[in-house]
Write a structure and sequence with these properties.
Length: 647
């Protein structure tokens, strides 16, 4: 990921602008660079007309942050099992100050804008110091960025203003700017946010491969776990016998985007059969941007996540629901979630900011589960700066002690269930033969990606699972993020001994490899719309693994230790090798290839394998980390009890 060299001083609003004499030295005799130049209108959108030159738009310059090149080292300092500082998580204030863009960065961009005729009092620096915001006319935006702005529409009639053909910045400015928006990055069309809502392939959506109704629930009560996966099956598969002891001091959350909602009656239908002590309970709502789980929408994803997580956790462990509204703006839902957690992407005062009202004002949970794919992992100038910035934000939040868990996808080595592969530089849906395409956030190295497994036909929970054959579990190698040091040994072993001999252009052998682990993804029993169903997908796998990590945190908190936070370096370490069941059967075909085969050790289908909870818990309990370092993740009475337990 892109970073600035060295540590630079953090600016304040009083740092602006540079003296005019120095400004003049900076502004002349420079080359321009193309910041992004996609050649076609993004999928799901159609060009409507040229934008009104007199219309105002909120133009935002996301500034290059300080010390991003040190982010992995900072994380290893608190997440490597061999580090004496393991578990000593950072405060949110320390994170903000460490990565705040330098005065040089802020002043350079500000000076260029004023030289181009923007009034200084119209340029506002965000509270985090990472965005310069100005309201300008379309005509001024086109002049500043040498771009052509258009209005675009989707199938639902939602409108977006942008410049899909790209924009340019002076070279001396470009080095200080990650990206400018609204420009080339388009939010997912409303009609495409749910996979079933359109025949067109979605740009983002839930990870869930399919479902079939259960005609006779009684008949599956004692069925083998190869044909119907219940909560008892999951407990047996992962040696998971859990009764919380840390109460509401421990926290765990699940994210639902847009109109993916649950119904309390569906939860009770499920709990009535499989977890009677949860009947009448619902998750605690954390509404982001007005997200409303009582609104109309699709019940499949949220029902699956919440039934599995609450069912496995039990009534003594609360589940928080981050319900993130899908709005008609230039921001994708990941940005809104991250903004709510730490104020990133919030360009000016929250009360007036375009498209964002929740800026660092939402509680953080120790574990956050995400069962959605939100962007293809392409080395594309229209996408890469955006997803790299998002991944950086996941890493920064991981420093504070949050574990982010995400589904690895249901498209094998292609992007999403719509099987998108890269053909002659174009993202092509429908399983065309081409280059492998990963998905985000799973391929971000600061997220723990979870693949899907299933019990072999005729098998039992005493056997090691295999990679699911109901759908190709997502996995492969990132096109945006280099392989982190903590997975070098495991991944290189796979590449040297088991990887297919594909052409060098088919996948990026030096990229971050995923998934990291796997849990069951087929055939999961859920309740939805008044009936029981078999469903499948890594969409189930992620929340299952998130529950196990929440239970690990419960045990560590009870022992006076901090939550585990960023877990990937530990999972790949020798100290955790015995905590996994090695999955060696299966593959993840797509893009008219066989994908990757499962193999001994880490592989791009099942990661390190499926977890044995008791061994995983004990391995994390053996690591240090003071309890008091994660007080920022709590609030109110929970924080007081947390502090008391820490002594």
């Amino acid at each position: 990921m892109r970073g600035l060299k060295g540590t630079r001083s953090a600016p304040s609003s009083s740092d602006l602008p540079l003296p005019m004499a120095l400004t003049q030295l900076l502004l002349f005799a420079f080359a321009t660079v193309v910041a992004a130049a996609p050649r076609s209108v993004p999928a799901g959108w159609s060009l409507h007309r040229r934008a009104d030159p007199e219309a105002l738009i909120p133009l935002k310059f996301s500034l290059a942050q300080s010390n991003v090149d040190k982010l992995e080292a900072f994380l290893l300092d608190i997440a490597d099992p061999q580090s004496p500082k393991y578990g000593q998580h950072w405060s949110p204030v320390r994170v903000k100050e460490t990565f705040r863009p330098s005065s040089e960065t802020v002043n350079t961009v500000h000076a260029w804008l004023t030289h181009e005729g923007v009034q200084a009092d119209k340029i506002q620096l965000s509270p985090n110091g990472d965005i310069l915001h100005l309201d300008v006319t379309i005509a001024d935006a086109e002049r500043l960025l040498q771009a052509d702005y258009y209005e675009y529409s989707d199938e639902d009639g939602s409108m977006h203003v942008g410049c899909h053909d790209g924009y340019t910045l002076p070279e001396h400015v470009s080095m200080h700017v990650d990206f400018v928006w609204p420009t080339v990055h388009f939010d997912a069309p409303r009609s495409l946010s749910r996979r079933s809502a359109s025949t067109s392939p979605p740009l983002w959506g839930r990870d869930g491969a399919g479902k079939t109704p259960i005609d006779n629930l009684a008949a599956i009560a004692a069925a083998d776990c190869d044909t119907s996966v219940t909560l008892d099956c999951l407990r047996a598969l992962y040696n998971f016998d859990f009764t919380p002891v840390s109460g509401d001091v421990n926290t765990v959350g699940v994210v639902e985007f847009g109109k993916n909602i649950y119904r309390a009656e569906e939860l009770d239908l499920f709990f009535g059969t499989y977890r009677p002590d949860q009947v009448g309970n619902i998750p605690t709502l954390i509404s982001v941007e007005g997200g409303d789980p009582d609104a109309g929408g699709s019940e499949d994803e949220a029902s699956l996540d919440i039934e599995l997580m609450m069912g496995l956790l039990g009534p003594k462990q609360n589940l928080s629901l981050y319900q993130v509204a899908q709005q008609n703006s230039s921001m994708d839902p990941t940005d809104r979630l991250l903004a709510a957690l730490d104020g990133s992407y919030c360009s000016i005062a929250p009360a007036t900011d375009e498209g964002i009202t929740d800026c660092g004002n939402k509680p953080r949970t120790n574990v956050i589960s995400i069962s959605y794919h939100l962007n293809p992992d392409l080395n594309d100038p229209a996408i890469s700066p955006v997803v790299q910035r998002q991944c950086t934000e996941f890493g920064k939040q991981s420093l504070t002690g949050i574990t982010f868990v995400a589904s690895s996808g249901d498209g094998g080595v292609a992007y999403g269930a719509s099987q998108a592969c890269l053909v002659n530089g174009t993202l092509t849906f429908g399983g065309a033969k081409g280059t492998f395409v990963g998905q985000l956030p799973a391929s971000c190295p600061f997220v723990t990606a979870v693949g899907a497994t299933s019990v072999p036909p005729g098998g039992t929970t005493d056997q090691v699972e295999e990679s699911t054959t109901d759908f190709p579990s997502g996995g492969g190698f990132s096109n945006n993020f280099p392989r982190p040091s903590w997975q070098d040994s495991a991944v290189q072993n796979y590449l040297d001994n088991f990887a297919p001999d594909y052409n060098a252009t088919i996948f990026n052998r030096t990229g971050r490899a995923y998934p990291d682990v796997a849990t069951n993804g087929y055939p999961i029993v859920v309740a939805e719309k008044g009936r029981f169903l078999h469903t499948s997908g890594t969409s189930a796998s992620a929340p299952i693994f998130a529950v196990l990590i929440a239970a690990v945190n419960d045990a560590r908190i009870a022992a006076g230790k901090s939550p585990v936070g960023f877990i990937n370096p530990a999972l790949y370490s020798d100290a955790f090798a015995h905590t996994f069941n090695d999955v060696i059967v299966g593959s993840n075909p797509a893009c008219q290839t066989d994908g990757f085969p499962a193999a001994p050790g880490w592989d791009p289908v099942s990661g390190m394998g499926t977890p044995n909870f008791e061994k995983l818990r004990d391995a994390f309990l053996a690591l240090p980390g003071m309890l008091s370092t994660s007080l920022h993740a709590l609030s109110g009475q929970a924080a007081k009890r947390f502090a008391a337990a820490a002594g």
